[in-house]
Structures are given as structure tokens and as C-alpha cells.
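Onboarding guide, step 5: your first structure request.
Type a short instruction followed by the sequence, for example:

Predict the 3D structure of this protein.
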Amino acid sequence: TVERIYDTDRGILDTVRDDTQTPLELNLEFTYVFVTASSGKVVSPVDALKKIGQASEWVSSDTDQCAPYAVTIELRHCVPCGTDEDELLVFKDFRYESLEYDLQEATIAVSGRCNVTDAVASRVAALDCPVTNPIA
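The system replies with C-alpha cells like these:
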């Protein structure tokens, strides 16, 4: 959402300016396979978000060394047929604010905010999309 301020001059619309920027909110839900990864395996989403386990030596995506740890999330929308391109969304400098575990549904819900106002979207070749779940 982009908030705008409409200024008037003696009751007549005059100038439009952007209001204060707000961080991009992101809510994700992923399949609960494991909370933490075994040594030498693919890093789990929880390990990546918390910078623990296999991700303990990862570097923050935020260039400000004084800022809390952040990650960049790449979300690929892979279209199974009908096009030779898929879409890649990049959410820069994401910091999680809550992790909710639902063992009955085998899901982990993540919510947080990015230090940007919008995701960056681009088109990628369909061949770039993985065909299986890399965590399984």
C-alpha cells in the first residue's frame, strides 16, 4: 500500500506527496518436515531464519552490520505448463517476528517484515525451477 498526502491551496487540490514508507509485511506457511537440518543436509527454513544450526555462519542480507540479522527470501512461482517462463519474487532483508508450529497440519507459519516497501519481481526460464522439494 502506498499512502499519499493530498495538499490543497485555498481549498483546491494542489500537490500530492508520498507519506511515510511502511515496511513490506510477509506471511508464509511451509510444510513441517524438520525444524533443524542434519549435518551436511539442506538448511531448514527455521535454521535460516534464526541463523542457527547449518546456517549459524550465514551473513545477514542487510549491509548495516549494526542491524539485526536478516535474510533475503526468493519465492519462485513455477507454472507447470503453458509457458516457458516462471516468476521470481525477491523479498530483501526479511526479519521474522513470529513462528507458529501446527503439528496437526504439519505446517510452520512465519510472519515478519522486510526493510523494503515492495518485492522485486522478474521472469525466469522455466528450467530454473526445481522439480522436487529440496528439503525432503
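Each response can be followed by summary notes, for example: The CA atoms of residues 70 and 95 lie 5 Å apart.
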